[in-house]
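Q: Got a minute? One more chain.
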Amino acid sequence: TPNLPEVEALTGIAPRSIEEMIDAGRNLQELGARNVLVKGGHLNGEATDILLIGSEEYRLSSPRFDTLNTHGTGCTLSSAIATFLAQGYPLRRAVERAKRFVSLAIEYSVPLGQGHGPVNHIQAAIQLLHEGVSVD
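A: Always. Here it is, folded:
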């Protein structure tokens, strides 16, 4: 689940567009990764991630929130993906649900301290439960 600076460090490609994110993800697959999620949160506009499952390509977008409370989003996303996979969801659906969870965690975050504050995992889980998604 590399973000743009991480995918650049791994591939030497500095994505500045969705197409370049796809190219960088394919490069990671050529290096041996079967499936890749390139996170596009560092680009402007909607937060669009690219999920590559074998030769299939999916663009997953969510709204961008005007907040500094984004500390821990990468760890939260990868943990949520693992959780949904452990519950038996197929990879694409697990990533979609995990992305929704992170989006809710950012949306319902509260400012704590200074700088980039934490996301709100508890409220995100509550919201998913209201949407009928199990978060066991």
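A: Residues 65-136 form one domain.
Q: Perfect, thanks.
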